Amino acid sequence: MSLKKFSLLLLCLCLSLSALSARAQDTLGNSVRPSPASGDAAMHGRLVLLLPFENRSNDATVDWIGTAFPDIFSRRLAGADYLPLGREDRLYAFDHLGLPGNLVPSRALTIRIAQLVDADYVIVGSYKVEGNRITAQAQILDMAALTLTKPIEVNAALPDLLNAINSLAWRVVRKMDPHYAVAEQTFLAADGKLPPAAYESYIRGLIAPALTDQITDLKESIRIAPDFFPAWMQLGLAYFADQDYQLCAATLGHLPRYYSRATEADFYRGLSFFYLGDYAQAENAFAFVSESMPLPEVLNNEGVAASRRGQPAADFFRKAIAADPKNENYHFNLGVTLERQHDVKGAIAELQTALKLNPNDTDAQSFLETLQTPPAANPDPGQAIADTDTPLERIQRHYDGASVRQAAFELEQMQEMRLATMPAPQRATALVKDGDQFLDRGLILEAEREYHAALTADSHSAMAHAGLAEVRERSGDDKAAKREAKDSLALEPNAEAHLVLARLDMAQKNNSGAKSEVAAALKLDPGNAAAHSLNDALNQLETNKAGASKP
């Protein structure tokens, strides 16, 4: 993306900064602000190019594992405040250089690719499968110093592949940023209990050359793991590429609005509805995207869908032009709309602009000539002259995900600067709120990062410790969870920490201790829904126990 286009996009996005902040990145899914303790890592740069790992096993059946490393690394790095350049960005760079997508580049070519995408780091690696075990190595190429780290290695049983990749990702992040505070166990738990078979089917679907094979593998991944959102996303995109718009819209509709790629999903849902002739649904889908990301292509499409429904559309096209005045299609669409509103002079001006931007636009030239031709005399006064044959507005078919991620990254830097101006306790409160929202969406890595940042701002934040207690609970580290909960209560009584202790007691079948913790939580917060739910569960356990003890 050119610097000028990016500046325009960033300007457009800044218009919705307050709304985006209020949502805490619900639709972007990843907050990418540098952590306050990052030191040199924050100053160095956060753009990381991820390349597939080289298979050194002499066994083509495990080739798919090479793509698994950058896929998981991408999600973990995004959660760790980096801006990863993943598969789509790599394929773009390879295509730009005329390289096959499955090429394992040499060191010199890797540097050239990284320079093309302006990467600060490149992660390269290899793996070898022997019997039931895998050994993998990762190295970090620092583009500023042009140095390559020593290999970082993991060795694990093959069924434990996902944990091995997540562990390696954590060690890579720690190598790039020694101050990174998120625990390794949080990385291991970030995907929940994703079955390895579901993940393998997902990766195979991601890299399969034929659409039919992609769809088959991705459907199998979803069958095994119905809540694995990346598989739903890729399946929807496969249906879109296969022009099965009905299934595309239905599949992408399974994704929650807080999913990290929800805006992209709704863009393609909008296009699918549009191609199906359901313009109202199309407009609604595009409107969801534009609320969070007022991209010119989305505003344009929202206007096209509105126009198909006979609704006013000129304002959408004007906003698209304001964000990207060099796109001739937006001027063409505004010209078409203005002609329908009988503003022929305005329509001519827009079409002339479109032709200046693209002199080879034959449709714009033809329509302009029609508008500039004086109306012919009516040879038969008894017959009405037909209206001008107005063309249809043009839909934009491509969602520039790389541009969106880059712009979102820059927005987060701006938000971080705002946050830095707050007094420490207020900043900690804001960070805890962000962490709570991540935790509500199951993003424990991102949540832990925010809670650590809150404690950096204010080491006496009881709610940051309470948040960390729940993160530790969800990642399976009960001892650390109990310690964080008690640290939180020592600073300030709060229902959240009591509830963590209650759940831990329940898991250990200490129901009396759990009842005591729930009672303490309800005393502090009588309306706490989670406390009431837990209390009901404990009462039911007592009822069941009493019933079972009767003869």
TrEMBL record:
UniProt xrefs under SMART domains:
TPR (SM00028)
InterPro entries hit by this protein:
TPR-like_helical_dom_sf (IPR011990), TPR_rpt (IPR019734), Ycf3 (IPR050498)
Listed name of the protein: Conserved domain protein
Which GO BP terms sit in this record? receptor-mediated virion attachment to host cell
What is this organism's lineage? Answer: Bacteria, Pseudomonadati, Acidobacteriota, Terriglobia, Terriglobales
Residues annotated as signal peptide: 1-24
The parts of the chain that form a coiled coil are none
PROSITE patterns, from UniProt?
TPR (PS50005)
- Which superkingdom, per the lineage? Bacteria
* Keywords, in A-Z order: Repeat, Signal, TPR repeat
TPR repeat spans:
328-361
Q: Write out the GO cellular component annotations.
A: cell outer membrane
